[in-house]
Amino acid sequence: xxxxxTYMWQVIEGDPSRVVIEEDATLLAPVIxxxxxxxxxxxxxxxxxxxxxxxxxxxxxxxxxxxxxxLPEALILEWPERSFMPEPQITDDDQPEGTIxxxxxxxxxxxxxxxxxxxxxxxxxxxxxxxxxxxxFxxxxxxGDLESAVDFxxxxxxxxxxxxxxxxxxxxxxxxxxxxxxxxxxDADPDRDGLVNLVEAYAGTDPRVAGSRLFLSxxxxxxxxxxxxxxxxxxxxxxxxxxxxADLLGFESAESFDVTVIEDHGDxxxxxxxxxxxxxxxxxxxxxLHSNDGF
Length: 295
Known about the structure:
mainly beta, 21 strands
């Protein structure tokens, strides 16, 4: 080598604090170490004391980056859905070499005790939620060296009947067991008008406003009894079953009861039922509401 030449290495792009030029930056071929992944440009200047020339070299340093996770910010489950299987999009740089990604699903915050994972260590577990509400979830993915975490929320909307109770009764009332029989329970009658909450829901009336009526009229038309009543458009699966008894000791479903909708009032409709057939000369009528849910 020409001993009259001098050399100088300089970092001109990238963070100089992350570049170590070992021994001496004035050597022609020093050992250069990069402390972090990234893009760096170094310039070598060669001078013979009279003239100088420079050349730049660009380095792309690859290193381990944490896994990336893409998940929707929010998910809504409509009743009766209570389970879902998340579909995260996960990418990794395969560093360190031979890496096997690990996963951890957690639920946190209010109501997290209602959440069950089929396997919280799986990338895509089946998640089951016991009750309606909004829940917070976190997925953590690790490559053994670095990890990433993403949060998202899931809202489970209640069944229509539960939603009706939530609209008419506050959360403070609904969580107070002492008010179950007098205010918010299905058989409570908070406005004391003779209609319990379940009947108010069926009729489409307000359980907090007294004076609600289920039956609108009862008349005789020839050999038929004509009953008119109101029913909400959303009946919550409840079915009206008129029953008759001659002695109040036992009621049986009426054999012939033809029902038609005679007027639409928007949120509720007026129905007419004609009770005819082989009826006792004197009988009692019981209007039984029931559903497949057992109430």
